[in-house]
Write a structure and sequence with these properties.
12 helices, globular, 6-stranded mixed sheet, SAM-dependent_MTases_sf, alpha/beta
């Protein structure tokens, strides 16, 4: 029997970032178009991430998967490309990363174009370059990031300083809530973070965001088969209860359906033979 891989603290955020760039290139025809500056930033971000995380101080936070990604990428910059092309499950997940990232970029760009006073936070940033990309490209100063692992934030900040010359300010979710209540934060992006929070915590976050953030793009997980619903995943009953508990539910539901259908269209357009990935726990996107 093969040994189950050991995941370290930084393995998942590292894989998300390293597989993002080749996925953006591979699936360029299936996602929101990105500027050449954004693509260049992502490329430079991953180079800087490798240079930081290879040091003994941070390498110790890598497990089997993270060490393999690090060592193989240092040997050949084509390693992430090969993984996105053919490694088990990586093509599926990397497409998901590419769609989420490009949709987040478009969402923030549209909000900034419509309203120059955007003050946003990337909730659950991991090693995503989203916030520094937006801050750099659109010359805005009010960008923030949240991650509950200080080691992740330390690496994130070092990489951002190397690439952009600055780092979005790290805050806690409680600080973000206080800033929203005082008008110092008006936009939140939360991709891939809520499913790590229990349902009660997710509902609490969603209610607060709906009430206090004028702009948001949030990913939750949903399964319409309650017998196979994973942990921290909404089933139909939980989703309906949430709908009853929030204001403007009809508008939010309409937007969620539109967002999620666009996601499905992009995903199936890129991988028409991989619909099984969408049958069980799948992503729904709430926005305003």
């Amino acid at each position: 029997m093969s040994k189950k891989p050991d995941f370290g603290l930084m393995d998942i955020p590292l894989s998300c970032s390293m597989f993002l760039e080749p996925a953006l290139n591979k699936y360029a025809g299936n996602i929101v178009p990105l500027s050449s500056n954004t693509k260049k930033f992502v490329h430079e971000w991953n180079i800087a991430l490798m240079s930081v995380i290879k040091s003994p101080k941070y390498r110790r936070y890598l497990g089997d998967v993270g060490r393999k990604i690090l060592s193989r990428t240092l040997e050949s910059e084509r390693f992430p490309i090969k993984c996105v092309d053919s490694a088990k499950s990586v093509p599926l997940h990397s497409l998901h990363y590419a769609i989420r990232f490009s949709e987040s970029i478009k969402f923030l760009a549209d909000k900034i174009t419509a309203n120059k006073g955007i003050k946003f936070v990337d909730f659950g940033c991991g090693f995503s370059p989203l916030a520094p990309v937006i801050q750099s490209e659109y010359k805005i100063s009010d960008s923030y990031c949240i991650d509950n692992k200080p080691e992740i934030i330390e690496v994130y900040s070092l990489v951002s300083e190397k690439v952009a010359g600055f780092s979005p300010k790290s805050i806690s979710w409680q600080q973000a809530k206080n800033m929203a209540l005082s008008g110092n934060l008006n936009t939140v992006i939360a991709m891939g973070v809520l499913p790590y929070i229990d349902i009660e915590g997710q509902v609490s976050c969603l209610k607060f965001i709906n009430k206090n953030f004028p702009n948001f793009l949030i990913e939750i997980k949903y399964n319409n088969n309650s017998s196979t619903t994973g942990e921290n995943v909404f089933d139909l009953n939980k989703l309906q209860k949430l709908k009853l508990d929030v204001e403007n539910a009809n508008t939010l539901e309409t937007t969620m359906i539109r967002n999620s259908l666009r996601y499905l269209h992009r995903f199936i357009g890129a991988m028409p033979d991989k619909r099984y990935f969408l049958k069980n726990d799948r992503s729904l996107f709430l926005s305003r």
